[in-house]
Amino acid sequence: MRLTPPAFATWFIALLIGLLAVAGKIGYFAPAAPYAFWMMTVAFGMLVLGSLLKGL
């Protein structure tokens, strides 16, 4: 299996989603609080797919 680094856009979007999830979990961004787990799951999934699929 050959892994590639994710594209900058994929990495940046995953970072923003992850930061929103953390901010929601600790109470700085209340609308994201109920979805913090799923937002972090999506962010991690984006990074995994970005590493597995070339050009993503």
Question: Top keywords for this entry?
Answer:
mainly alpha, membrane, transmembrane, 0% strand, 2 helices, elongated
Layout of helices and strands, plus pairs?
Blueprint lengths: L7 H19 L9 H17 L4
Helix pairs in contact: 1-2
Report mean pLDDT, rounded to a whole number. 94
Domains (count): 1
Shape: elongated
The number of distinct helices, counting runs of at least 4 residues, comes to 2
Q: What class, by secondary structure content?
A: mainly alpha
Oligomeric state as shown: single chain
Largest sheet: none
Could you give the distance between the termini?
Answer: 16 Å
Which series of helices and strands comes N to C? HH
Low-confidence segments, given as residue ranges, are none
Alpha-carbon Rg, integer: 12 Å
Percent of residues in helical segments?
55-70%
Note the beta-strand portion: under 5%
Compute the number of strand runs.
0
Transmembrane segments: 33-53
Keywords: Membrane, Transmembrane, Transmembrane helix
Describe the protein in words.
The structure is a single chain. This protein has 2 helices and no strands. The protein is an all-alpha fold and about 55 residues long. The chain has one domain. It is elongated. The mean pLDDT is about 95. Keywords: Membrane, Transmembrane, Transmembrane helix.
